[in-house]
Write a structure and sequence with these properties.
Elements (H helix, E strand, L loop, with lengths): L3 H32 L15 H10 L11 H20 L13 H9 L2 H11 L3 H32 L4 H7 L6 H18 L11 H4 L9 H26 L6 H18 L5 H32 L1
Helix pairs in contact: 1-2, 1-10, 1-11, 2-10, 3-4, 3-5, 3-10, 5-6, 6-8, 6-12, 8-10, 8-12, 10-11
EC number: 7.1.1.2
GO biological process, one term: aerobic respiration
Subcellular location: Mitochondrion inner membrane; Mitochondrion membrane
């Protein structure tokens, strides 16, 4: 039921996430700088802490480029819808101060996360560029491929908890963390989330060495800023979901969530891009059979405990 406390709780959480997105970009540039034996941002403000603000001012004050052959409404509204979907995804996340308690939170999460495919394809198609269209087609194919195994992995946690509620799943892990039973699935979840968020080594939708900048090649100014904010916000959400589903639940999000975000960044600096056919083979011939077998095993485990 709507009340003022819930509204302000959600508003505070979204503001904190947006501030976190800004400083995650600073963390990424700093970590990548040290991996590549350079300093990274360190001039704007103390230790470069004001660099994200300077980047935001630059992006939002940049001139908007109107393409002659673009599909105007799709070109303008696709990044806006992407940022809106990012907000709706974070609403489901359980926090300690009065926000919504979704009994079917995981179903809500996957319903909205699947809509990101349309945003990505809309950005690539509306630009009317061969590079952006190819990047969008790649991104759509890999997101659809990995969402299948992600759903089966989540269903294993649902079967063990008998609930779709994030808070109930967290409560069950007060006894034992799920990674003890589902460690291979946790590894598959993390790798699949890297592909779902179009991050290295699965950044085929933004392959700079092949597609200039992929699906967002024609975007600048506020359009690129919205795409950028949505991408990093979903990276933070996926990193936190690793903790909620496998590493102790909501109580450990602040500490372990930061470690997982740093891991996302470290992977970018440590691994080269995969071949596209290897990615598809890994999704359909590797991760999907393993996740289905674990789901069947989870049903068997719960049935065995019930019969005891």
């Amino acid at each position: 039921m709507w009340d003022l406390g819930v509204f302000f709780g959600e508003l505070i959480m979204l503001v904190m996430v947006l501030v976190g997105v800004a400083f995650v970009t600073l963390l990424e540039r700093s970590i990548l700088g040290y991996i590549q034996l350079r300093k990274g941002p360190n001039k704007v403000g103390y230790l470069g802490l004001l660099q994200p603000i300077a980047d935001a001012v630059k992006l939002f004050s940049s001139e908007i480029v109107w393409l002659k052959l673009m599909s105007f409404y799709f070109y303008i509204y696709s990044p806006i819808f992407g940022l809106a979907f990012f907000f709706f995804l974070w609403v489901v996340f359980p926090v300690v101060f009065g926000t919504f308690d979704f009994v079917l939170g995981l179903m809500y999460f996957f319903c909205f996360s699947s809509l990101g495919v349309y945003v990505l394809f809309g950005c690539g198609w509306a630009s009317n560029s061969v590079y952006s269209l190819l990047g969008a087609m790649r991104g759509v194919a890999q997101m659809i491929s990995y969402e299948v195994s992600l759903i089966f992995i989540v269903l294993c946690c649902v079967v063990l908890s008998s609930s779709y509620d994030f808070e109930v799943i967290s409560e069950w892990q007060r006894l034992v963390w799920y990674f003890v039973f589902l460690f291979p699935l946790m590894i598959i979840w993390v790798v699949s989330c890297l592909a779902e968020t179009n991050r290295t080594p699965f950044d085929f939708a933004e392959g700079e060495s092949e597609l200039v900048s992929g699906f967002n090649v024609e975007y600048g100014g506020f359009g690129f800023a919205f795409i950028f904010m949505a991408e990093y916000g979903i990276i933070m959400l996926m990193a936190c979901l690793v903790v909620v589903l496998f590493l102790g639940g909501v109580d450990w999000v602040v500490f372990l969530g930061g470690i997982m975000v740093s891991f996302w960044i470290w992977v970018r600096g440590a691994y080269p891009r995969f071949r596209y056919d290897s990615l598809m083979g890994l999704a359909w011939r590797g991760y999907l059979p393993v996740s289905v077998n674990y789901l069947i095993g989870s049903f068997g485990f719960v049935l065995f405990i019930f019969l005891l």
